[in-house]
Amino acid sequence: MKYSIIVPVFNRPNEVEELLESLTHQTIQNFEVIIVEDGSQIPCHDICNQYKTQLDIHYFMKENSGPGQSRNFGAARAQGEYLLILDSDVVLPDNYLKSVDNELQREPADGFGGPDCAHPSFTDTQKAISYSMTSFFTTGGIRGGKKKLDKFYPRSFNMGIRKEVYQALGGFSKMRFGEDIDFSIRIYKAGYQCRLFPEAWVWHKRRTDFKKFWRQVFNSGIARINLYKKYPESLKLVHLLPAVFTTGMITLSLIAIIGLILLITTGNHNFLWVSTIPLIPIILYILLLFIDSTLQNKSIKIGMLSIISAYIQLGGYGCGFIQAWWQRCIKNKGEFSAYQKNFYK
């Protein structure tokens, strides 16, 4: 067995069905599928049973412990030479495994991963969220794009690793959020190498609405500081940009508001400049996002939604980052996360 596909699941039976259906169309068949139900109240056991004649599928139910520990549970039962870690909200193109196989034959890799994009069937909101998470103008391309401000760290929505390396590192840590980056950092620190497989991409649904998306990116901002406390060298300039963006946007908005108040109360037209000049960089950035997303998605509506999504992505991450920096670096408190119990609600 060459590949073991490991998928932790929590209350997402419909998404699992879409993922399993996409696996039946793979052009390479030398793989098994391990579904680990992480204490779900809405299990996907019946759906997995429907695919037993089409896939080499193994279903396990366990108490809730988070995605990282569920992946470890699956890895301990895997037979493949390579472990492919996927999130339950991804769908694979027919040539996904073939692309992974081609890359490994061309050049071996200890750890690897691929990019993600939006499927045409996704909602406009999901496409806008996908844009904000993958665009160079929002994340610097650190999530698998070709234009990058940082080296490539595989993430758990589309991650592969040699089983012997996984076992040598002890798998994922007990971090509830940011555990995939923690794992990637440990891969590098142990002397192994990770590589981007640009053609091994997936369709990734991410969150289905902006409220859930805020919770996701807020937790990601907190996780970045938690990672910094474990690995100080892991914090790069690109990770500071959302916090700088958040404080900058708040500062510019406050200056504009104060200028407007002074203009109204004093009638001094000199304050007109104070109320308008700070808005120029905000407007220019909004236009940049709108034009770029509209062209990429060929939709004005998605372009407009991408503005909201980008500000949530940067602002939510920035707020989580700043809060965690204050709690952990200034007040010296322990590791924490937000929205843990209602993360998917």
From TrEMBL:
GO molecular function: transferase activity
Keywords linked to the UniProt accession: Membrane, Transferase, Transmembrane, Transmembrane helix
Pfam families: Glycos_transf_2 (PF00535)
Domain Glycosyltransferase 2-like: start-end pairs: 4-166
Keyword Transferase: yes
UniProt keyword Metal-binding, yes or no: no
Regions that span the bilayer: 237-265, 271-291, 303-326
InterPro entries per UniProt: Glyco_trans_2-like (IPR001173), Glycosyltransf_2 (IPR050834), Nucleotide-diphossugar_trans (IPR029044)
Protein name stated in the entry: Glycosyl transferase family 2
